[in-house]
Amino acid sequence: MELSVACAKVVRVSRPRRSARTYIYQAVVRADRSDQDAPEQASIARNGLRQVLAEALQSTGDQVVNAKTVLPWALATLGAPGFLIALLVPIRESGSMLPQAALAPVLQRSSDRKSFWLWGASGQALATAGMALAIATLSGWVAGVAVVGCLAIFALSRSLNSLAGKDVLGRTVPKGERGQITGLTTVLSGAVAITLGVALRVIGDDFSTGLLAGLLAVAALLWVGALVVFSGIRDPGSDVPPDPAEGPGWVAQSWELMRSDAHFRTFVIARALLLVSALSPPFVVSIAAQRADHGLAGLGPFVIAQGVAALIGGRLAGRLADRSSQGLMVWASVAASLTIAAFLLLDALSAVGGSEWLPPATFLLLALTHVGIRVARKTYVVDMAGEEKRTVYVAVSNTAMGVLLLIVGAISGALSLLGPGVALAFLAVLGLIGSLASRRLPDVSIGKTTH
User: Fold this and answer.
1) DSSP structural state of residue 81
2) Is the pLDDT of residue 11 over 50?
3) 3-state helix vs strand vs coil in the chain, percent to 5
4) Cα separation of 55 and 42, whole Å?
């Protein structure tokens, strides 16, 4: 008896204590760690926390370099032509997706894929600083061209982050914890968005381009900080050696993947149909703008709503995505379509349609569904791909989405000539079809049966 007690004491004494970093990480990211020893837990905690902080800094900068809200207001104030303002969203969204299939072979031939993320962060920092300089010193069409040009560099740099970030996440953090990391970064950036929105509401019409240029300069520094933090991640490197033989070009490889991999093809189709939550908010904002003054104070509620959605939805979406990313895509898409239908119905009623808070409330609900869809699809593509396919899956799906985004955006934009309500109705139907397509996907989350 005494011997067993002594042995138990020895075991308790010899058991390594968790570091503060490990304790913090495991307090915010819940997972089954029964198969992880202490050194592995410490390594995952180090990499996980650095990814949370780096992505949070980047997401915070995104709240300022926002092609749907902040940048259009800035160019309008500077007197830039309307067609340049119209280019902001397509360049920002598609520019970060289209190059990825071409970049994937380059990334796959490198054993140090973390460096691609660092190059991407550097490019975004420089591009954001260029926007700040242009807004502070230029006006009219010259300012518009400069900002749009810097935004193109920003989007191309972001493609490196999108491609390399998921690859590094998949190798440094195990399945069951990845969605929560994405959700945590969303929460942190949401808190910043709320602060920015409240500030815009308080400032009201007392707006100067110098103030916005200062905000963009701070955003550029955030990407510098993200670069420093991410550089400390201990990436084990690729386990798949690069193939020295020359294969088909990236276009042929992408087409072959889409043709031969039914699972991946279904995911890309479903993801395209889930654009309802991404493309509908600007139309809600335009309806509100037609009925209210165009002062900067009117922008505040929408920025606040975006932040609240990230703050509320980030953690919840992360945990739901780790439980079933496929299920989250289905139900978030249904929720987005029903939200649009309710908005159109209430807006048609004269007694309710004049409500000042109906568009911001609708924007909030759509932003919540977008958080769910965004976290779910990111988690799904990382979980469904093995080590040898993860990079190409992310690259080809994002490039395909860049093309499909332009197509769906062009259709909804053309329909908006008949009125924003028509475009919203089209997107609502698209979302319902997307939920049906998502139901066809196998569930690849932890504890589920994979293909």
Assistant:
1) -
2) no
3) 80, 0, 20
4) 20
